[in-house]
Amino acid sequence: MSTPILNWTYKSFEELSKLELYTILRLRSEVFIIEQHCNYQDVDGKDLKCHHLMAWDGDNLVAYTRIVPPGVSFTEASIGRVLSNSRYRGIGAGITLMEKSIEKVYETHGKRPIRIGAQLYLKKFYESFGFVKDSEEYLEDEIPHIEMVLA
């Protein structure tokens, strides 16, 4: 696949169209429930309070994160539901997604620490952006996680 030119959008929950919301929830289900064989409640009530960063290739959602305000998941602002569409992996969209997510946290919530609940196998990926381990390993939905902070 040639590398597509991605269209990045950043919207509050209220700004999302019905089609955008449907596409987000469908891809989250594909990645977190089907691909990772994890039976959990993805629609957790937090989306309503978050901003949503999306990378599109035409009508295809390529990469996504939700930017979580302070006090919702952690005391700090957070980046959650980090994912890339399996059909687009290997083109660098995940790296750009995290860079843009960090920028959007700072733009939306000020330059302050960012805390994430990271799947353990992605520790080195998040360390490449400056996140450091800040908890013991724990299981979330039967998947090993750690908290990490970007100060």
How does this model look, in words?
The protein is an alpha+beta fold. It has helices at 18-35, 93-109, 123-127, and strands spanning 7-12, 51-57, 60-68, 78-84, 114-119, 132-133, 138-140, 143-150. Strand 2 (51-57) and strand 3 (60-68) form a beta hairpin. The longest helix is centred in the N-terminal third of the chain and has 18 residues, at 18-35. The chain is globular, with a radius of gyration of 15 Å.
Task: Write the SSE topology.
Elements: E1 7-12, H1 18-35, E2 51-57, E3 60-68, E4 78-84, H2 93-109, E5 114-119, H3 123-127, E6 132-133, E7 138-140, E8 143-150
Antiparallel strand pairs: 1-2, 2-3, 3-4, 5-8, 6-8, 7-8
Number of strands: 8
Strand content: 25-35%
Most strands sheet? 4 strands, antiparallel
Poorly predicted tracts of residues: none
Strand order of the largest sheet: 1-2-3-4
Residue share in helix: 25-40%
Q: What is the H-and-E element order?
A: EHEEEHEHEEE
SS-derived structural category: alpha+beta
Shape: globular
Query: Average pLDDT, to the nearest integer?
Result: 96
Distance between the termini: 36 Å
Rounded radius of gyration (Å): 15 Å
Query: How many H/I helices?
Result: 3
